[in-house]
Amino acid sequence: MNVLVINAGSSSLKYQLMNPETGDVSAKGLCERIYIDGRLTHKVGDKKVVKDIPMPSHSEAIEAVLDILVDPVDGVIKSVDEIDAVGHRVLHGGMKFSDSCIIDDKCIKAIEDCIPLGPLHNPANLMGIRACQAVMPNTPQVAVFDTAFHMTMPPKAYRYAIPTEYFKNDDIRRYGFHGTSHKYVARRTAELVGKKEFKMVNCHLGNGSSLSAIKDGKCMDTSMGLSPLAGVPMGTRSGDIDACVVQFICNKYNMSVDDCLTMLNKKSGMLALSGVSSDFRDLSEGVDNGNENCQLALDKFCYEVAKYVGAYAAALNGIDVLTFTAGVGENDHVVRASVCEYLGFMGVKLDPEKNKVRGKEMLISTPDSKVQVWVVPTNEELMIAQDTRDLVLAARK
Ligand code: AMP
User: pTM for the full model?
Assistant: First the structure.
């Protein structure tokens, strides 16, 4: 089966054509500057093609993707009919979606209803869906939500301790994000440890970071909230912060709440603390050059990640497995070592040699560690392709 995986942003669209059984990616790429002018970057294996193509809307971007996929020179399929299904990443499924779903009018209406919860992403995701429907009307499409995996959280984890009317009337609660990644890592870890029933904390540490407490494959708690701003500090996000900080800054600097939130989302986190960069590679370089602010940024990050792991270990009454994934989690052995050092009290012991691994599946704890620690590279596209395959095959029956 060939599944086209689409991740549509407001002015960009990423794609991968993949086989959900093997995980093989036959082609992938990116459309950028949609609505401005339009540029397609297309990769097949090591070969990369860049083309300037007018993209006045997402429809032209999808058309450009389909054109290049069937191109006699740069393409990988003979006809668009060889695409069996399309899987779309959708940011916010609100309380309406606890799983992926086949896209029909009802599903589209529900994604529209979630726009107030995901005002930046859901409209862009819908544009990608509508563009695909327009150019490939007979191909089944599936929506895979970043929030869905977290819908198994109990009320004590997802409710905010604020007046009930905001929950009842406005669906204000913890939702959590990176759900497709957490789900992939939870499933893969179950295969790696050879059992289904166990307790784990997954640390998705990238430019955006979140942790999830997972029991028997189900999410019990997660660090992001109504929006991806909550939880540990990130590349440019502050993470958890006292709401009175917003009040203070808005009042003192005559700033709007929206502008203050932009500051907390885009100018905070590692970027703000280091004064150098949001990229962990730059922070490591800064530390090597004796930059104390870079050291503080990394110290803060590892400290807060470790605190969340400790909190989730308490929430789950102990954990069997700790996993690291995403750009930082998969590659930064210094971050992993520092986080695990805090967790020594729980019997977490890293093997320093194995911990040097980058971007590969690996058990990095010692045999006598009370908690198995794994690096499990995430694969959100594969998870989207597999959910898409499962739903499309089920609908055919
Ligand atoms: P992601 O959001 O998962 O794509 O992760 C992006 C983050 O991963 C960036 O902040 C990078 O600094 C970080 N990253 C990528 N490669 C490395 C590496 N080799 N060492 C440390 N951090 C890395």
Answer: 0.95
